[in-house]
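Lecture notes, continued. The same structure-token format from the folding unit now serves as the input rather than the output. Read the line below as a description of shape only.
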């Protein structure tokens, strides 16, 4: 009964996604209707229609991901039944943890848990890949490795990001399977190898990815965790059904021979995503296991999240260009290509598209004639233009409330849903700048563009968000001017947008 209700609920969500998209398109067509052969208004309406169509396609794809993820449990059960653990023929495994100028005490604490993994000792080798530039950190970690039977690896040159560290590690490991962890991940289930290794009896499997989550922190860090949880709960299972699962960089196992055939980890800032795509191109399969075996350190600072999102969006934009180029000559199915394109487009949809919609809203407020509504007509239900404005506002409210309700239903928290919504606006300009840099092949400082704030500082928060504050002030001014011109709803809409963009400054100040 519970499964049936979940299935019906997902169908309902698909319907809502569709209604949301139809609302946007109808509103776009209405803008054409009232343009009255005015060239400027026709251009404006055309741009809005194009953005609405792109948004519709993305919404439909996300809705299908959400729907398809329902069926992943049965698919995974079938796979697990095919492959059983053979304790007499276990493959050798290398366990590697990667670190870079991090707290040695945290690394040592986490590694001591890895040493407790349930697996024959003669079948497992432990490695620490340390790219630290500080001699005192290197010395402490090297001493720990020497006393714990761990192979210590250090590069003299820290280049090619995480891909460089992993490719350097491969030179020191000969084992067929590689279990990867980031420095901050603490193992909570020692049976990770016994559970996952049997899946590699299928020689076409190149990687197995598990669910990645963070430990509890504050409302901010828990909301960041839920943002990732949406991906692992709905998108990754749906992609795995289509053999387009994404290796997430850690908490997963990779087959060494597949990696060798691909040519190692691609030297990109999101090497894991590029590896996943190359794995598919080389006819390998990836599997996602919706179980948490390790948890990472919570992201408690907004500046740390900003750094992460700069790297993600820069990398995703590079990936989108790469997929579009490679897909022309590949044998991937249309569905697979669509999965990869939507992945590369995902953060750009949440940033570049929202920014474009915001800018477009300014022109709509001041150029589209039906927006100007006299005060006396505000409550006149027979005023047709008023009805269409309400129609547009209704569509917007659905877009606002919908993700918040999903968070409440699946993760039992409206507050975190609201925080996720605010975070997407606070990160718009940060992500967009990263996307533009990647689009034009310009280098961007992925690691220190937004330095970590060690204490609350309104001056530093303002300094880090000058573009956001400038844009917010423009929106506030135009919103106030619109209201003076009797463009009531349009003015309120622009002022609301202004508050959303200024949230970046607030979050930098509140969370550092």
């Amino acid at each position: 009964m519970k499964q049936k209700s979940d299935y019906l609920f997902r169908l309902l969500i698909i319907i809502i996604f569709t209604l949301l998209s139809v609302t946007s398109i109808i509103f776009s067509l209405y803008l054409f209707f009232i343009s009255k052969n005015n060239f400027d208004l026709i251009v404006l309406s055309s741009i809005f229609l194009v953005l609405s169509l792109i948004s519709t396609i993305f919404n439909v794809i996300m809705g299908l991901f959400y729907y398809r993820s329902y069926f992943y449990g049965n698919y995974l059960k079938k796979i697990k039944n095919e492959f059983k653990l053979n304790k007499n023929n276990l493959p050798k495994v290398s366990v590697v943890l990667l670190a870079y100028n991090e707290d040695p005490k945290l690394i040592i604490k986490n590694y001591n848990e890895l040493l407790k993994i349930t697996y024959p000792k003669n079948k497992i080798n432990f490695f620490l890949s340390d790219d630290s530039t500080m001699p005192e950190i290197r010395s402490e970690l090297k001493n720990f490795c020497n006393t714990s039977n761990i192979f210590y690896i250090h590069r003299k040159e820290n280049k090619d990001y995480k891909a460089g560290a992993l490719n350097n590690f491969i030179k020191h490991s000969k084992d067929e399977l590689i279990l990867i962890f980031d420095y901050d991940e603490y193992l909570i289930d020692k049976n990770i190898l016994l559970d996952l290794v049997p899946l590699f009896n299928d020689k076409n499997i190149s990687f197995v990815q598990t669910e990645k989550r963070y430990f509890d922190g504050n409302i901010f860090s828990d909301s960041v965790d839920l943002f990732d949880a949406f991906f692992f709960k709905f998108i990754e299972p749906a992609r795995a059904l289509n053999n387009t699962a994404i290796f997430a960089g850690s908490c997963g196992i990779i087959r060494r021979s597949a990696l060798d055939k691909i040519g190692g980890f691609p030297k990109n800032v999101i090497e894991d995503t590029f590896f996943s795509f190359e794995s598919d191109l080389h006819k390998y399969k990836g599997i996602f296991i919706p179980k948490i075996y390790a948890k990472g350190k919570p992201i408690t600072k907004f500046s740390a999240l900003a750094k992460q999102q700069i790297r993600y969006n820069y990398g995703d934009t590079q990936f989108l260009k790469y997929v579009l180029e490679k897909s022309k000559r590949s044998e991937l199915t249309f569905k697979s290509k669509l999965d990869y394109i939507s992945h590369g487009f995902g953060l750009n949809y949440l940033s570049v598209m929202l920014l474009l919609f915001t800018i477009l809203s300014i022109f709509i407020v001041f150029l589209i004639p039906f927006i100007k509504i006299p005060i006396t007509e505000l409550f006149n239900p027979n005023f047709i233009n008023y009805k269409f404005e309400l129609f547009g506002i209704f569509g917007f409210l659905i877009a606002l409330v919908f993700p918040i309700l999903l968070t409440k239903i699946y993760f039992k928290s409206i507050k975190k849903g609201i925080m996720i919504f605010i975070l997407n606006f606070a990160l718009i300009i940060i992500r967009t700048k990263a996307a533009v840099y990647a689009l034009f092949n310009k280098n961007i400082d992925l690691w220190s563009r937004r330095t970590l704030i060690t204490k609350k500082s309104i001056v530093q928060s303002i300094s880090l968000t000058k573009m956001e504050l400038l844009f917010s002030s423009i929106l506030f001014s135009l919103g106030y001017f619109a209201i003076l011109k009797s463009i009531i709803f349009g003015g309120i809409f622009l002022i609301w947008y202004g508050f959303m963009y200024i949230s970046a400054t607030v979050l930098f100040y509140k969370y550092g």
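Point for the exam: Confidence is low (pLDDT under 50) at residues 381-392, 447-451.
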